[in-house]
Design goal:
With 519 residues, the protein is mainly alpha-helical. Helices cover 63% and strands 2% of the residues. It has 21 helices and two strands. It has a two-stranded antiparallel ribbon with strand order 1-2. A hairpin with a 4-residue loop joins strand 1 and strand 2. The longest helix has 31 residues. The chain is globular, with a radius of gyration of 24 Å. It starts with 5 loop residues before the first helix and ends with a helix. About 7% of the residues have low confidence.
Length: 519
């Protein structure tokens, strides 16, 4: 590799620190005020994004690559339409800020791809994965410490626990790390957890001897495997999956489990049918079914072993998490016990289907009826009874109500059906129609929010963009885990709005794709 100048070295440094910076999505946060419909704030990941884009402008100009942005015209259609939609937005200030961040994201992704020769060598990849997994493990430790501090009665000013995350809610805390709430923390753990699970499937002993090591160095994703010792794959996956379960976020946990099921099905099918990477053209190739049909197809024993090992780690991680939550309920200040803590976890995560709680005269978990209890619990540190006794149905009902409200407003007239109410206008649209208490209310479903704000045209352009992303991803050397990560992110967006707050959803797959993508 040629000698790098100072700008190129700083560019590489920013790529290195990206995985760690993304975890600080809410703490620290710099607040500049608010209005009736939004808060004006900036986080460390957003500062990283602005600084990164400012730097790459000089690099792209110097390399005469800036003009190439028009060559990817198909990728410009969606952000272009979103920009135009600001002109009819019910909340143009929010729309303008949102579209500004979206263009920053787009420009960063474009720069990853155009400048990938600066960070695509194996030594950089190996260091990147060490930072990627190392920073995640540090955050996992902090999440555990956060729980201990909360049970010990340390003020939220120091533990950084969100108001709805403390032991007073369920009898045990569920950590939010440096994110605004556990759901965002769980979402931040999705990519590291899925990648570490994929490492277990790809694990094999490191080659012995100079010639074997040389061959191994050229194998698929060698830098990724070398970044983590083979014997530590299981420990890494166990730690990340356990912390994800400890967040108690149904959206993140459901997305993770579904993603791992998809990973299992595709990986098993690839071994049965002989699917694989072919000369960098595609991850999938057509094969001939053996005589005798599908019944003659078998899964290799090694594949079954690795899949079994991966799922045993997931089950063990869940068992550890639920036992830790039970212990925290037992030793915490509330009158909960180990058994009641475990029962609450199962009841909440199963949406009330699994119920092994001790029956009481009256169990009421509606948030509306518990608001007073929540406020009292936050003020009264001696409160001995947890606010919730299991599945919080109102949490699900609120999401469904807001989603249905968005569809109701969207379907009112043909103009809104086609073009929406404009980017950033969802909150005001609901408020103006008497379907939300304040203009700041957000729809806890990104797809419903985007449908209301951009109409059928926006959704159609999003679908086209997703197809473009899949086509490019299929040419990557690690297409399988990348696609699974994107599926997990896509599922998680059914439970919260991530446009454009959750930067990891856009930046992490893009930078990983650039590390392993083809020209």
């Amino acid at each position: 590799m040629t000698k790098l100048n100072k700008l190129e070295k700083f560019f590489r440094f920013l790529i290195y620190i990206l995985p760690g910076a993304l975890f600080f999505s809410y703490y620290p946060l710099f607040h500049f005020g608010s209005d009736e419909s939004m808060n004006f704030e900036i986080s460390l990941p957003m500062i990283w994004l602005i600084l990164f884009d400012f730097l790459v402008v000089f690099l792209l100009i110097k390399r005469k690559l800036l003009k190439k942005i028009v060559d990817y015209w198909a990728w410009l259609i969606l952000p272009g339409f979103l920009t135009i939609s600001v002109f009819w937005s019910l909340n143009p200030v929010r729309g303008l800020l949102t579209v500004g961040i979206l263009w920053l994201i787009y420009f960063a992704v474009f720069s990853f791809w155009q400048l990938k020769d600066l960070f695509s060598e194996d030594s950089f990849r190996e260091k990147f994965w060490k930072v990627f997994f190392g920073s995640t493990l540090v955050i996992c430790v902090w999440c555990l410490v956060q729980c201990i501090l909360d049970i010990a009665g340390v003020s939220r000013d120091y533990s950084l626990m969100c108001a709805g995350c403390t032991y007073q809610m369920f009898g045990f805390p569920h950590p939010n790390g440096f994110a605004i709430e556990p759901q965002f923390m769980g979402n931040l753990l999705l990519a590291p957890a899925i990648m570490s699970g994929w490492l277990i499937l790809r694990s094999r002993p490191r080659p012995a001897g100079p010639s074997a090591r040389a061959a191994g160095a050229n194998s698929r994703a060698a830098a990724l495997r070398n970044a983590v010792s083979l014997k530590h794959y299981n420990i890494l996956f166990l730690a990340l999956a356990t912390t994800l379960f400890l967040t108690f976020s149904r959206g993140a946990i459901y997305a993770f489990v579904i993603a791992m099921i998809i990973l299992t099905i595709i990986y098993q099918s690839s071994k049965m049918f002989g699917l694989g990477h072919t000369q960098g053209r595609s991850t999938l190739r057509v094969v001939r079914v053996p005589r005798g049909g599908l019944a003659k197809l078998t899964v290799p024993n090694q594949t079954l072993k690795t899949l079994t090992k991966m799922w045993l780690v997931i089950i063990f991680a869940f068992a550890i998490a639920i036992n830790v939550q039970g212990v925290m309920a037992e030793v915490g200040p509330t009158n909960d016990t180990y058994k009641s803590g475990v029962a609450k976890v199962l009841n909440h995560l199963s949406l009330g289907v699994i119920d092994i709680r001790e029956q009481k005269d009256e169990i009421n978990n509606d948030i509306d009826d518990k608001n007073g209890a929540i406020e009292e619990a936050l003020v009264d540190e001696e409160n001995q009874e947890a606010v919730f006794d299991g599945y919080v149905a109102e949490s699900t009902d609120t999401r469904m109500r807001l989603t249905n409200a968005a569809i109701t407003v969207w379907s009112k007239d043909i103009r809104t059906i086609l073009f929406g109410v404009g980017l950033g206008g969802a909150g005001k649209a609901l408020y103006n129609n008497g379907l939300s208490p304040a203009p700041k209310e957000i729809i806890q479903n990104e797809y419903a929010s985007l449908l209301l704000e951009t109409g059928l045209i926006g959704i159609a352009l999003l679908a086209i963009t997703i197809v473009l992303i899949i086509r490019v991803t299929l040419k990557s050397k690690i297409a399988l885990p990348l696609l699974v990560i994107m599926v997990a992110y896509g599922i998680s967006l059914c439970f919260f709005s991530g446009l454009p707050n959750a930067l990891q959803i856009y930046l992490l797959p893009a930078v990983i794709l650039s590390l392993y993508g083809k020209n």
